[in-house]
Design brief:
This protein is of the alpha+beta class. The chain is built from 3 helices and 4 strands, in the order αβαββαβ.
């Protein structure tokens, strides 16, 4: 207990000393009294030091990048990297039409819910599938889930398929999203 009070007394003493106001002997009433109020004058130039020379390009420059024959301009165009043997170039999906026009003709489209032996499907239910179509700007007139005959092997589509009725003008956008027109 004695040691605790001794330690507490030392800590209070150190705190009192460190928090005491500092003594300032300078007169701070006029900051401009001493040549600009704390600004020091510029040092004198040393006559033995020469000013730094600016390097300017001369006639014998080394070109870091050279242009191929017949090319001009900057930057240098990149050289294409050869594709490895057996590389299959992916097919580009058709772009979505920004302004499809409704024709008044309705068509049914299909898309399998998932794939057999695969993880959970990307679109779990009919409401999500309809919401995805509407989000892509394709109005859905009618929708349902139908069962179809399919092969029973891994990689085949599931027997459950989403079936939606849309306007024929939006068929191109639906096909770009993986839907197929019903025959």
């Amino acid at each position: 207990m004695k040691r605790f009070f001794l330690l507490l007394t030392i800590i209070v003493g150190i705190t009192a000393v460190s928090c005491a106001p500092a003594t300032n002997n300078e007169d701070s009433s006029n900051p401009f009294k001493n040549n600009g109020g704390g600004l020091n004058s510029a040092p004198e130039a040393d006559p033995d030091i020469f000013p730094r020379v600016t390097i300017t390009p001369g006639g014998n420059l080394v070109e870091l990048e050279t242009l191929p024959d017949g090319a001009d301009g900057y930057p240098v165009p990149p050289t294409p990297t050869p594709r490895p043997d057996g590389y299959v170039v992916p097919t580009q999906p058709p772009p979505l039409s920004a302004y499809p026009e409704a024709t008044g003709t309705l068509v049914w489209i299909l898309k399998p819910v998932g794939e057999q032996c695969a993880e959970a499907p990307a679109t779990p239910d009919l409401q999500t599938a309809v919401a995805d179509m509407v989000a892509f700007g394709i109005p859905v007139v009618a929708s349902e889930v139908v069962e179809m005959l399919v092969c029973s092997a891994c990689g085949c589509p599931t027997s459950a398929h989403f079936r939606m009725q849309i306007d024929m003008g939006f068929l191109g956008n639906a096909e770009a999203l993986g839907w197929v027109a019903e025959q």
